[in-house]
Input
Amino acid sequence: MLQRPKTRKLPGPQDWTLRLKNGRTTVLIDIQQTTSYEDLKKELLLALNSIDPSGTLNGAPIPTDHEDVLLARQVDLHDITRGWQALELPEEGSAMEHMQGMGMKDRACLAFHFEGQGETGDVDLSIYEEE
Output
C-alpha cells in the first residue's frame, strides 16, 4: 500500500493546488509543478484511501493500482458544461511528462474516473448551473 511521508514542507512558489472531481466529490491535492502524471495519480489514490478507508468512492471501489485512474481536463476553462477531454499518458522523458509541461496551472480542475467505473464517475454539473 502507498504511504504518505510523515513530514511535509510548507508550500512555496513552485507548489500548486489541483482540484480533482468525481461526481460531487472534489479532492484538493498539493503538488509541485514538476510532478509527473503518474505521481499525481498515486497521490490521488493516497488521498482517497485516507478519506474513506472503506475503499469506495461514490459507490465505486477505489483501485489499488494508479494505472486504473483516468484523468480529464475541461474542454473550455471558462465553461465547465462543454465537457471534459481525457488526458493522454505522456511519453517518458517528454516535456509533457509533468504537470507544467501538460499546460496545467495552479488551481486547475481535473476530472478523475476509475477504469470500469461506468457512469458514476461523471462530474455532476448541476452545482454549476445558475439558479
Q: What stands out?
A: Confidence is low (pLDDT under 50) at residues 127-131. The beta strands are 15-22, 25-32, 56-57, 60-61, 69-74, 84-86, 109-114.
